[in-house]
Amino acid sequence: MATQTLKRDVVIIGSGPAGLTAAIYSARASLKPLLIDAPPDAEKQTTPGGQLMITTEVENYPGFAKGIQGPELMEEFRKQAERFGTEFLETWIREVDLSERPFTLYGDDLVIKTETLIVASGASAQWLGIPGEAKVPHGFGGNGVSACATCDGPLPAFRNKPLIVVGGGDTAMEEATFLTRYASRVYVVHRRDKLRASKIMQDKAFRNEKIEFIWNTAVEEILGTPEEGVTAVRLRNLHTTAEHTFPISGVFVAIGHKPNTQLFRDQLDMDEKGYLITSGKSTATNIPGVFASGDVQDSVYRQAVTAAGTGCMAAIDAERFLDHLPVAMPSGEEVTIEGEHITPDHEAIITPDGHMIPNKPELVAQED
Ligand code: NDP
C-alpha cells in the first residue's frame, strides 16, 4: 500500500485530559489540530481516553457537583474537542524524528509532518500482573481493585472496610494515609522489610493507628465475586513461602507509574524515571516546537484537572510559537519559530546564524 503523507501545524499525541484539552484550545484557535490516539491494546497498555477510562466515579473534577463516571467525562472532553473541529486519527506511531521541523511521525502506511507537536501520551500505572487484577470482566479492576486512591478511595464500596495498599514507596504511603479517612483499617503489603518512601512519609504512616504493615509479603491473587467485588487476597510470605488467604474489601496497587515516553527516547530530555522535562515557565521541551503536557511530564500531581491545565498551556504555547512569538525553554532561553534565541536575562537575541543583537526597543528620536 502507498504511504500517505499528512501535513499539519499542530499534532497532539494522546487523548486523555491533557491531549483533549490541548485539542479544544488549539481547535478553537483555528489551528485544526490532529489528535492521534493509540488503538486499545492490552499488551502495549494503551487506553484511548487515558487513565480516567479505567476509573469509576470522578468526584473531584471541578464543575461536576454530583460527580461523573471517568469514561463519561472523557466522552464529554472528546465531544467538545470535536465540536471545534479537532481531527482524530487512531494509529500507532512507531517512530518520530524531531531532528528538524517539520517534525516527522511514522505510523503504519502513514507519515505525518507537523510544525508543532504536543506530547500528551500520559503515564501507565504499574500493575502486579497477578490473577484477579485485570479490569472487569476478566478480573476485579474497577470492582475493588484500583491504582488511584484519590480517585476511588471515597467510593461507598470502600467505606468502613478493610483495604490493602501494595507497595513501599511514597505513593503507597500517601495512598494508605489518604485511605484511612474512609477505610476501617489499611494494610500496607510490602515485598521487603524496609520502605523506599521518604522518612517524612514513612513516619506519617507509622504514626497512623489505622495503618498496619505486612512485611516481606507478596499478593499472589485477588479473590472475589462479580456481585461482591473483592473479598480476599492470597498472600505469600517471601521468607517462609507460607501462603494464606486474607479477607479484604479492596486492593490499591501503588507500585509506581511509568510515563509513556519510549517513543521519544534520545530525542527529548527526560528525568531518570523517563518523565519529560519541560520549562518551569511553559510546556516547552528541549526541542523548540515540541511541547509536553499531562502525566507524561508530571510525576507529582497526576490529577485529571492538572493534566487538563497543562494541556491548555501546551496549546497556548504551540499557538504562540506558530505566531512567531518567543516561548520559554527549559534552558531559561526563549526561542522563536525562526530559531532566534533570547538570552535568559532578556538582554540579547542570538540570531540563527549566530549574531548577537541587543534586545532593546529601538529608540525613537524625540522632537523638541
Ligand atoms: P517508587 O518507585 O518510589 O516505589 C515503588 C514501590 O513499589 C517500591 O516500594 C517497590 O518495592 C514496590 N514495587 C515495585 N514493583 C513491585 C512489584 N512488582 N511487586 C511488589 N512491589 C513492587 O514509586 P512511587 O510511585 O511510590 O513514587 C514515584 C516517585 O514519585 C518517587 O520519586 C516519589 O518520591 C514521588 N512521589 C512523591 C510524593 C510526595 O512527595 N508527596 C507522593 C508520591 C510519589 P521496592 O522498594 O522493594 O523496590
Condensed summary:
With 368 residues, the chain is of the alpha/beta class.
Explained architecture:
The chain has 368 residues and is of the alpha/beta class. Helix content is 18%, strand content 28%. Strands 1, 2, 5, 6, 7, 8 and 19 form a 7-stranded mixed sheet that branches. A hairpin with a 5-residue loop joins strand 15 and strand 16 (243-247). The relative contact order is 0.15. The model has no long low-confidence stretch (mean pLDDT 93).
Give the SSE layout.
Elements (H helix, E strand, L loop, with lengths): L3 E10 L3 H12 L5 E4 L19 E2 L9 E2 H14 L3 E4 L4 E3 L5 E5 L2 E10 L3 E3 L19 E2 L2 H4 L9 E5 L3 H10 L5 E5 L9 H9 L3 E4 L2 E9 L3 E9 L5 E5 L2 E4 L3 E3 L30 E3 L11 H19 L4 E2 L5 E2 L5 E2 L5 E3 L5 E3 L10
Parallel strand pairs: 1-2, 1-8, 2-5, 8-19, 10-17, 11-12, 11-17, 12-13
Antiparallel strand pairs: 3-4, 6-7, 7-8, 9-18, 14-15, 15-16, 20-21, 21-22, 22-23, 23-24
Helix pairs in contact: 1-2, 1-6, 4-5
The structure holds NADPH dihydro-nicotinamide-adenine-dinucleotide phosphate (NDP).
Biggest β-sheet strands, sense, barrel: 7 strands, mixed
Q: Please give the alpha-carbon distance between the first and last residues.
A: 73 Å
Ligand names: NADPH dihydro-nicotinamide-adenine-dinucleotide phosphate
Task: Give the strand tally.
Answer: 24
What is the approximate shape?
Answer: elongated
Proportion of residues in β-strands: 25-35%
Protein structure class: alpha/beta
What's the alpha carbon Rg, rounded to whole Å? 24 Å
Helix content: 10-25%
Query: Could you report the average pLDDT, rounded to the nearest whole number?
Result: 93
- The ordered H/E elements are EHEEEHEEEEEEHEHEHEEEEEEEHEEEEE
Count of alpha/pi helices: 6
Q: Report low-confidence residues grouped into runs of 5 or more.
A: none
